[in-house]
Write a structure and sequence with these properties.
Distance between the termini: 39 Å
Number of domains: 2
Largest sheet: 6 strands, mixed
Helix content: 40-55%
CATH superfamily of the largest domain: 2-enoyl-CoA Hydratase, Chain A, domain 1
Structural class: alpha/beta
CATH architecture of the largest domain: Alpha-Beta Complex
Order of helices and strands: EEHEHHEEHEEHHEHEHHHHH
Strand content: 5-15%
Shape: globular
């Protein structure tokens, strides 16, 4: 990779944004320069109005091996270095989670530490069936980051999350699907086809509806049942009056495919 090549690539084509970790010679290990670019590219996405799906990928042999321990060890003030790294990572993740567009993670190999968090924080995670998943923080005397202590209990339950974080087992892709960490696992020669199917479906779906689903699910973490139903009522009523809701209902009644992209303008 050329010295001037970006550490995080962003491409947008036909309403699909592809965000690629681009530090392949280091297994896409996370150091501060990569995380700064990650946060900056996430902010670039937040400022665009032409993106309906975001695909998160990684270049090279590994998806992401987690934090760069060598980079950490170079700093005399490790506390300050790690805090800066975590702050940039978390800022980028918060921006991505706040996007209306669904996030699709494509895990083609090992996802460790914060790499696992990147996959877990997506809305849909598709992995090759040879991918491996592990936390490994406590192996090196550290604690989890990347939002994993919030994400994993919700995805796989507190008991399994505790085991992953304390015992550091390595999950196969099939096990990751079984416990609910990722959405599906497919053979390597089917990965791109599976991703394309998901991306096409989400790109042509109602972005307003997709966004509402994301917000409602996040709100459910702290809402009571009654409060959540109030949020649902407000959401569905608002969507029904909006252009995409009108298009979807009209298309159903007219027995034709809905054109949500056209309705959204």
């Amino acid at each position: 990779m050329a010295a001037t090549e970006p550490l995080v690539l962003l491409e947008v084509d036909d309403a699909v944004a592809t965000l690629t970790l681009n530090r392949p010679d280091a297994g896409n290990a996370l150091d501060l320069p990569l995380m700064v670019e990650f946060r900056e590219r996430a902010q670039d996405l937040a400022e665009r109005t032409d993106v309906r799906v975001v695909v998160l990928r990684a270049a090279g042999r590994m998806f992401c091996v987690g934090g760069d321990l060598g980079w950490m060890a170079e700093h005399a003030d490790r506390q300050a270095a790690l805090r800066s790294l975590a702050d940039e990572l978390h800022a980028g993740l918060l921006i991505l989670r706040g996007l209306d567009a669904p996030i699709v993670a494509v895990v083609h190999s090992t996802a460790a530490g914060a790499g696992l968090s990147l996959a877990a924080g997506s809305d849909i995670a598709i992995a090759v069936d040879t991918a491996k998943f592990t936390m490994a923080y406590t192996k090196v005397g550290l604690s989890p980051d990347g939002g994993s202590t919030w994400l994993l209990p919700r995805l796989i339950g507190t008991r399994r999350a505790t085991e992953l974080m304390l015992m550091n087992p390595t999950l196969t892709a099939a096990q990751a699907v079984e416990v609910g960490l990722i959405t599906r696992a497919v053979p390597a020669d089917e990965l791109e086809g599976a991703v394309a199917t998901v991306v096409d479906t989400l790109r042509d779906a109602s972005l307003a509806s997709s966004s509402a689903v994301k917000r409602l699910l996040d709100a459910s973490a702290t809402s009571t049942f009654e409060d959540q139903m109030q949020l649902e009522a407000e959401s569905i009523a608002g969507l029904a009056a909006g252009p995409e809701g009108r298009e979807g209902v009209g298309a159903f009644l007219e027995r034709r495919p809905a054109d949500f992209r056209g309705a959204a303008g």
